[in-house]
Design brief:
There is one protein chain. With 136 residues, this protein is α+β, with helices and mostly antiparallel strands. The chain has a single domain (36-133), classed as OB fold (Dihydrolipoamide Acetyltransferase, E2P), CATH 2.40.50. Helices cover 27% and strands 32% of the residues. The chain contains 3 helices and 6 strands. It has helices spanning 2-24, 75-80, 126-133, and strands at 36-46, 53-59, 65-71, 93-100, 107-114, 120-122. The protein is globular and about 70 Å long. Residues 17-23 have low confidence and may be disordered.
């Protein structure tokens, strides 16, 4: 009887942990039906796992500045796709395309970036079609 209770508890814990892992990789926080273009100045680059983050200041049409966070995939995946840490530096003027947060906060999921060099770098999926459409 004790072994059966232990197995049930272990099974419940295992299922609970797997759902947390799936939630971590959910894209539900982003509005994937929209793409927002963000011209701005890089203020911080966090080249870390599990996700790389780039923060930038974006000047709105009314002259006010908004601070945006752009979430990338992992640095391992970026490195494998020839995107390196030195491609984005604090102070660079760039233009991001993101899927914005669904809740309206200033942040989003990386789709593409026009680097300070004028070169485009795109994420997989929708990002690739953006780069193809931009002929870059």
């Amino acid at each position: 009887m004790y072994q059966m209770i232990t197995r049930v508890i272990f099974s419940i814990l295992l299922v609970s942990c797997s759902s947390l892992a799936l939630a971590h990789h959910s894209f539900s926080m982003f509005d994937q039906t929209k793409q927002v273009t963000l011209p701005g100045k890089v203020t911080e680059v966090q080249w870390t796992n599990p996700h790389v983050w780039v923060f930038l200041d974006v000047t709105r049409p009314d002259g006010k500045t908004e601070h945006w966070g752009v979430e990338f995939t992992s640095k391992v995946h970026l490195t494998r796709r020839n995107f390196s840490e030195d491609m984005l530096k604090v102070g660079d003027k760039v233009e991001f395309v993101v899927n914005p947060y669904a809740n309206g906060k200033t942040g989003g999921r990386f789709v593409a970036v026009k680097l300070a060099t004028g070169q485009y770098y795109c994420d997989v999926g929708a990002g690739q079609s953006f780069c193809a459409d931009s002929k870059q």
